Amino acid sequence: MEMDTATIVLFSQDRAFSQVASGLLSATGEDYNLICLNTFSSFSELEATNGPLAVLVDWKSMPNPGRHGLVPRQENGEWLAINAEEGEVEDVSGWIELGYVGILPASRCLELLCKAVRVILNGELWYPRSEISRALRAYQQGGFNPQQLSGVLAEQFSLTSREREICHMLLKGLSNGQIARQGNISIHTVKTHVSNLMQKMEVNSRKELMARVMTETRSHEVVPVWS
């Protein structure tokens, strides 16, 4: 079965950066439909696409599309903040709440761009593992308990026992590969369970799943992990 062509939208007002980034993505050999935009208002004028969509925001030249009415968590596609300052990378929970599936610091942006795009188009998050761990610890200190919250979600959305188990591992920050190894199942099976539980929770991507998790964390009395 032939896969739909992935569309990559790059927001940048830095022409030189845009040309280099586009060149790198074109050189991968992937059949990407590349679209470069220098205004956020142009996004609404794009034709709908049936294939995967990645949206890259050059945070150095076009920061914070939310100020222009473009909120990633409310839009289609997998949104990646690129060319960000080093200090901005640390606020993983903040980026996830905004709807971004990852962030690339300016210091390694071009080096990791193609790999990051491939990863997010595959439904994975792209954040430094150390920062994900730090964000999860912060949620734990604030009362975020992955095991209990997965139980709350399982009851609310009628998840099966296996889906609850997968949900628990997702909340712990595990990748599909790690879930497959820990659960002794195939990657394909993991993706099927993830797809099923996201459908039940009425979310279309991991960014929406994490946003839903944060909402549930705030709206339910979740017992801290140390209690």
UniProtKB/TrEMBL annotation:
Please indicate if the UniProt record lists Ribosomal protein as a keyword. no
SUPFAM superfamilies registered for this protein in UniProt: C-terminal effector domain of the bipartite response regulators
Gene Ontology annotations of biological process type: regulation of DNA-templated transcription
Query: Could you tell me which residue ranges the HTH luxR-type domain spans?
Result: 152-217
Q: Which CDD domains match?
A: LuxR_C_like
Coiled-coil annotated residue ranges, if any: none
> Could you tell me the keywords of this UniProt record?
DNA-binding, Transcription, Transcription regulation
Report the GO molecular function annotations: DNA binding
Q: Which InterPro entries match?
A: Sig_transdc_resp-reg_C-effctor, Tscrpt_reg_LuxR_C, WH-like_DNA-bd_sf
Know the name of this protein? DNA-binding response regulator, NarL/FixJ family, contains REC and HTH domains
* Originating organism: Ferrimonas marina
